[in-house]
Amino acid sequence: MSEDVAKRIAKLREEINYHNYLYHVLDSPVISDAEYDALVRELQALEAAHPELITPDSPTQRVGGEPLDKFEKVHHPEPVLSLDNAFDADEVRAWEGRIRKLLPEGTRLDYVAEPKIDGLTVVLTYVDGVFTLGATRGDGLVGEDVTQNLRTIRALPLRIPVSPDGVEAPPRLVVRGEVYMAKDDFEELNRRQAERGEKTFANPRNAAAG
Q1: Distances (CA, A) of 82 to 106, 127, 159, 178
Q2: What is the spatial distance between Cα 87 and Cα 116, in angstroms, rounded to a whole number?
Q3: What whole-number distance in Å separates Cα of residue 77 and Cα of residue 174?
Q4: 150 exposed, middle or buried (CB, 10 Å; 0-12, 13-18, 19+)?
Q5: What is the Rg, in whole angstroms, of the alpha carbon atoms belonging to the chain?
Q6: How would you class 112 by CB atoms within 10 Å of its CB: exposed for 0-12, middle for 13-18, buried for 19 or more?
Q7: Structural contact between residues 58 and 13, judged by C-beta atoms closer than 8 angstroms
Q8: H or E, element range at 184
Q9: What is the pLDDT of residue 69?
C-alpha cells in the first residue's frame, strides 16, 4: 500500500470534516455542493480500493447511512437524570432557598439561562476522541443503542479534533445533549414526506426522535 494513499485519505477526511462543520454547524459553506461531492466520491473510491484503511470516524461512515428501527439495550454507567421544571417566580425562589441552605452564608449565586430545546436526550461516548456509542436516555438507567442513527447527523462530530493549542481529547469522554430539528427543517421534511405520499410528523420533536 502506498504511503501517499494513506496520506491522501487522511487529508480528504480532514477536508470533508471541516466543510461539514462549516455547512452544518456554522451555516457558512465555502465550497459548492459539487466540489464537496467530489471530495466525498474520491474518499469513497480510495477506501473501496483500500478497505483496511476505513475507520469508524471516516465521513464515509455517515454518508448514506441507513437508520435502524430496532435497538439493543444500553446500561448507562451513571444515571441520566432529568431536570425539574419551575413554572413561576415563586418556584424559582423556593428552589434557590433550598440551594442556599447547602452553601455557606453570603455565597453569591449567579444564574445562566439559555433557550429550552425540546428534543431527544442522548448520551454520546467518545473513546480516544472517536465516537463509539450513542444511546437514548430511556428510563435513566437503561437506554437504547442509536449509534448508527446518530451517525447520520452531520453536525455530530465522529472525531473530536485536537484543539488549536494542541490539547487532545481524553481517553474516554461522555457527552449529554439533545437531538432536535429546527422548525424550517421540520417543515421542509414534512413537505417532502407529503409529496411522496408518506406519513408526516406531528411536531419537530417527533421528527427528530423518528
Answers
A1: 29, 25, 27, 12
A2: 13
A3: 10
A4: buried
A5: 21
A6: exposed
A7: yes
A8: helix 183-195
A9: 63
Low pLDDT (below 70) residues in the chain? 1, 27, 63-69, 210
**How far apart are the C-alpha atoms of 29 and 58, rounded to whole Å?**
20
List strand residue ranges (DSSP E) for the chain, in order. Answer: 73-75, 120-127, 130-136, 142-144, 172-179
Q: What are phi and psi of 205, to 5 degrees?
A: -65, -45
- From CA 200, how far away is CA 193, in angstroms rounded? 6
pLDDT at position 119, please?
A: 84
- How many Cβ atoms from other residues are within 10 Å of residue 13's Cβ? 20
Per the CB < 8 A criterion, the answer to whether 180 and 209 are in contact is no
Predicted structure pTM score: 0.67
Question: Cβ contacts of residue 141 below 8 Å, gap of 6+?
Answer: 75, 76, 79, 80
State the chain's maximal CA–CA distance in angstroms. Answer: 68
**Distance, CA of 15 to CA of 11 (rounded, Å):** 6
Q: Which pLDDT score, from 0 to 100, does residue 99 have? A: 92
pLDDT of residue 66: 52
User: Which residues are tagged catalytic?
Assistant: 116
Give the pairing of strands 73-75 and 120-127: unpaired
What is residue 98's predicted lDDT score, i.e. its pLDDT? Answer: 93
Q: Is 105 helix (H, G, I), strand (E, B) or coil?
A: coil
pLDDT at residue number 15: 93
